[in-house]
Every structure is written in C-alpha cells, then in structure tokens.
Amino acid sequence: MNRPSDGTKLREEDDDNSVIGCQSPHFTCCVASIYPFKVGVFAMLRELLTVLNDAAEAHIPDLMPGILSSLQDKGNNSGLKIEGLMFLNAAMARSSAQTFRPHIPVLAPPVLSAVNERYYKVTSEALRVCEEMARVIYPGEEPLSPELQGITSSLYEAVLVRLTAQDQDQEVKERAISCMAVTVALLGNYLNAQQEQVLNVLLERLRNEITRLTAVKAFSTITSSPLRLDLSPVLSPAVAELTSFLRKANRLLRQASLETLIAMVKSQSEALGAAELDALVVEAANLVTDEDLHLAAQSLRLCCTLLAAQPPSAQAIGDKVLPKAMTLVQSQLLQGVGLEALQQFFAAVAASGAPGGSFENLLQSLLSYGAAAHTPKAAQSSIAKCIAALCHSAGTEHVNSTVSSLLAKLKAPDNAQQQRLDLLVIGEIGRRENLALFDSVKSTINMALESPLDEIKSAGSMALGGVAVGSLETFLPFLLEQIGTQSESSKHQYMLLKSLNEVIASVTKGTASGGARLEQAQQEHILQLLLKNCESEEECRNVVAECAGSLALLNPSFVIPQLQSLVESESSAMRWLVVTALRYAITEKPSEADKALAISLPPALMCIADADRHVRRAAVLTLSSVSHNKPSLIRDNLPDLLPALYGQTVVREDLIRIVDLGPFKHKIDDGLELRKAAFECMDMVMDQCASYVDYAVFVQHLESGLKDHYDVKMPCHSMLAKLAQRSPHTVLAHIEGIVPLLEKTLTAKLKSDAVKQEVDRNDDMLRSCLRAVDAVARIPSVDSNSSFSNFMKNVVQAGPMAAKYQAVKEERQEAEVTAVRDRAAH
C-alpha cells in the first residue's frame, strides 16, 4: 500500500472534500454516541484538519450538532469538552470567516460559559476559541450586525474577567492576554468605552515578569490593528518598558519588544517625545553587533522606521547607530537578514540627512573599510552589497559616477585588496542596474579573469555574473562566447561557468533586473554548451551540473527530458552529469519541476548500480537528496532502489589499492566515500520512508558498517540508535551479531604515537558508539540476553569507559528534558 507522505500526496489520491464529506454522517453519528467514541472522533477530525487544511469547511453545518453537544457536556470528565474546543479552534483557524459567522450566535454561549469553568485546561482552550471567534466576527469595512455587537460585548466581558483575575494558572493568564489583544485589535471600535481599561491592564501585565512576554506580543497585535487605535493613554510608559526590555538577557523578550516598538513607531510616532526616542535609539544601537544578527537586523529596521516616521531622530541615529553599523559591516559573520537590514539602513541614512550620513560620506567610508588590508573577503562582499544598495537608492546620477570612478581605478589597480573590492562593487551594482552603456566593463572583467591571482579571478567571475544578471541582452552573449572559446583553460572556464550559474539562478528565482527571462533559444544554447563541458575537470563538472540543475528548475518540461534521454549515455561523465544535475533540481519546497522529476528520477537513480563508481556515488547522493526533500517522488521505486543501495555498502577489494611510498606502503580505499554516502543515504531513507524499509534486511547491512572505517561507523552508530527505538525487536533478533562489533570499537587501542587529531577522532567515535549502546540498553528485556549483559558489565560499565557512558546518558537525559520543556512552551 502506498502511504501518503503529506497533504500533497493525499490530495493526489483522494479529493479533499470527499474524505470528510462522505464520512461526515458517520462522524456526526459517532459524536452523538458514547463518550470514548466522541473523544476519539474529535481527535481524528483534528488530525485530518492538519493534513487537509480547509477540507472540513463545506461540512461545518453537518458537524455543528456534535460540536455543540461536546461544548454542552455536563459530565464530570472534561476530556470531551477539551477535544471539542480544540477541534473548533482548528476548524475556525482553517476556514473562512463567512463559514463560521452564521454559527456564532449558537456557538458563543457555550464557549463563553467554558471560559468561566474552573478547570484551567477547559478555560485555556475556550480562550483560544474566543480568539478565533473575534477573527470570525471582525467585519472588515462592513458594519457589524446588532446581534454580533452584543456577542462582542459578551466576549469582551468574559475575557476581561480572566484577564483581571489574579489567582489562576499561567497558561490561562497568557491566553487571556492574547485573546483580549486580538479582540481589541479587531473589534475595538465597538468597545470604545472599554479600550483604556484594557490598555491599563495590559500595561500592568507588561510590568509583571511572568506575563511580560505575552503582554509585549499583545501590544504588538493592538498596535498593528487595522483600526489604528489610539494608544496615547499608555504609550509613553509602554515604550519606556519596552525600551528597558532591550537590555534584558531573554532573547525572545528582546525580539518581541523590537517588533512591538517597530509597530508603535509606525502607527503612533506623533505621540512619542524626544526623550523617549533618544533612549530608544541608544538601546537599539547596543544591539547592532554580530553577536546576534537577527536582533541586529530588527534594531536596524527599527532605526529605518524611526528615520521615516520621525525625521528629527536622524541626529541621534547618526551619532549612536551609524558607527555601530560601520563596525558591523566589517564583520565576516554578517549575512542573511542582518546584511539585508544593513543595506536598507545605509540607504535610509543617506536619504535622511543624518550627520555624517550623506551619500558621499557613506560611500567613502565603505570603500575605505572594504579596501583595508585587514578586511576579510566575506566582509568585502557585504560591503559591496551595501554600496550597491546605497547607489541604487541614491539614483542614476550617483550610480553612473560611482561606476565610472571604479572602472577608472580598475585600469591601474593599487593593490589586490582594492581591486577585488572594486570588482565586487561593479558586480553588485550591475546586478541592480543596467551597465551596458559602460564600454569598458567587458575588458575590465576580462583583465580580472586573466589575473594570476585566484582571488581576483573569483571577483571577476562574480562581477561578470552580476552585470549579466542586470543586462542579459548585452552581457549574456559575451559570457556564452567566452565559455565556448576558453575550453583549454580549466581555471578560466571554471570562473566563467560560475558566472553563468549566477545568471541562471537569478533568472530562475526571478531576481534578474526588470524580471528578465531567458528565451527558449538561449536555454537550448546554454544546455548544449553545458553538455559539451561534461568531460571537463572535476571542479568545472560540478559547476556544469549545478548550472544544468538551475536550468531544469527554470524550464523543467524542456530540460529534464533532455537530461533523462542521456542517462544511458556511453560516457560515464555524461551519466554523472545527468544524475548530479537532477540532484540540483530537487528543492525543499514544491516546484514546477516536481512532475518531470517524478518521471525522470527513477531511471536516473538506477545508476546506483552503474559500472563507474563516481556515477554510483552521484546516484546515491541524489537518492539522499530526494529522500530528504521530496520522498514522495521515489517511495514507489524503493523496492527496486534499496537492493542497489545496499550493494554499495560492501567493501570491494577491487577498489582498494596499495601505494608504494618508499619506506612504507599506504593502502587507499577508493570505495570508502561511496560506502559512507550509501550508509548516510540509508539513514535518510529510514527517517523519511520508514514504512517502506524491511528492517530485517536493513540491519544486516548496518552490521557490516559497524565494522567498517571510522567515517562509516559514525553514521551507523546513529542508525543503530534510531533502529533501537523504532524497531527494537529487529535489534534484539540481531543482538548476538551487533554486540561483538560494538565491543571491538570500544576496546580498540590507539597507536602509542597517535597525534591529537587521531585521539580526538577516536573520542568522537567512542561517544557515538556509546550513544548507540545507550539506545540499545533501553530496549525492554535486552538485559535477558547474556551476551549484551556481559558486554555492559565487562566493557561499558567497567574502568574508564563507565565515566564516558555516564556522561553520554546524562547528555541524553538533559536533551530529553529540554525537548519536553520546549514542547510545553510551544
């Protein structure tokens, strides 16, 4: 039986609505039957909603009697009411407001009654439903009916009782705060007289250490309200509290506070005083470091919001934040959201007139920092992106003057550091702007690609890719021509292919300038050029495969069948290219390529049994990738693929060679990397496709890995630990063969002249082995096996190994406690 992996697979096999629709009479009947069935049906319905999302929407009228019955249950056991509330919350969250709005008059009384129940779990779930009810009642721009206005008042009163109560469970306190925030944010215009009371209560909760995080989020919800509510009665003290939270050690609190402050500055900035803004800027500046790039990004976003909403804050931001930003841009850790926020910040500062923040000053400072001898290469790349963002926001005149200046300097570069920075800046500006009018761009980049310095060649490659992204019609033909004529120089070819990959990836992601597209003829030309380079050196072949994979994502219906047609090519290099290109075409998120991949992957993956070991390894890596990202594409083919995969776990003598080094001989195992990849693939298949794995066969090959090389043993220890949890009877059935292998690993002696690296590797292997032992030791009745008992007594719990084993157990127990705590917090 094929088992769907996710909602997508299930929707392919069954119509969403039919799954619940054809069963809803049975569900209704069950909900009206005896207690255990009622609870079970609601739990099952809730699970269905997590998979099918909005599939229950059309059947809510059929389910309403059962829902109301559960909410009005008078029994002593609260389980049914809790399950009913949980299902109602899930259904409301996944349905349109129009679906539930007609039912609010009959749902509101029992839900609001549940809010006042004594058992905290019922109250908590009822408050969650009330939060969804507020979203359902919210009329948008339409007026609210008198009946729903009355329900809104009742909802407010019920939640207020819980919000103001002192002696109640923490979960209820937090739910009440969250529910009231949503109610006020969406229905506050019908609660005008009560708004100030609510805001003052929330301010009290903000000052309470136990509830402050939830209160911070509540203020964010209210501040972001589409009703643009007036927060002036509590704005100043709230901002003061939130500003003070930026100094706290609690990271979640700082994150939430920054988000709330950004929302407040956007919507309430006219009510903020200069002293409050100055204090806010000082605290925000302290977070602009590379210690936490997410917080730094939020702080920079806050400063950008201040510059837009409160222009007088430019003085303080220029004095306090700009120096911190200049330090951050030089960090080699800068990336992602931090780098994006920094680009926006420099552009905002230049537009604000902040002291020292003119375009010219910022440009010169960034160029100076980027060219400094101590600046890391990663920082140069960040600085180049910031300069490009600065020029782009400043306008065409500044773009042209900056590019002209850089091109002039590149004709006679002062030093490699300066030359590399200038090339990177040209590429980043070219990515955003069309540089076709600058005649010297091509010759300048060509000169860089011919440099004897690898770092300049690499910068030239990035520059060429960037300018081609910004002007496909001018620079792409030039790039393709260069690739076609530079095949004799592998290093030059590699750099050109990297440029091409940047172009294809940018077009595929839709980030090319002006939304430029590659025409069909261009795609065909590129594909033929890539296939022509399949026999090139290894580093070039890797980039060729990546380019082909990116091209497959751009036009899967054309490229993927073309690749599939070459899977049986006589050239092993071509077969390797096909299999590897398909791996690069596999993405974590759904894509247009998935349909074509489902057809092309099975025959390509049969290359696991190819005659060439490089092709076999490429196929194994592709199977790992698809198992991790899109397991539904290959599940049906696993019965054919797994035997071939298991075949790659065997040590092959024909892949072992002896190299004579004079005084001694060295054994090289050319099959090691393939075996390591095969075992790692087995691990991935076990994680993602467990129901398709025959563990009795699986464990036999796992045993061979437990006596293999260090690099193979490590993933095998991890798999054994997982197998002990998922199929303990399989491990018990093979325990006699497993124990000697574990014992041999734990008792192996290092050479007397072992270097530190060998000692560290051995310690890592011992820990991984002991983790597997710990997992096996927790299998019920494993102690009844004499071999395992003796092994534990004489090896694991004896001598120095006992302390290592105890440390591993404590590490596992601590991880379990942390996981439970995290789940509870979630």
From TrEMBL:
It comes from the Eukaryota. GO terms for biological process: SCF complex assembly. Residues 633-795 form the TATA-binding protein interacting (TIP20) domain. SUPFAM superfamilies: ARM repeat. InterPro entries: ARM-like (IPR011989), ARM-type_fold (IPR016024), CAND1/CAND2 (IPR039852), TATA-bd_TIP120 (IPR013932). Keywords: Repeat, Ubl conjugation pathway. Belongs to the CAND family. This is Cullin-associated NEDD8-dissociated protein 1. It comes from Tetraselmis sp. GSL018.
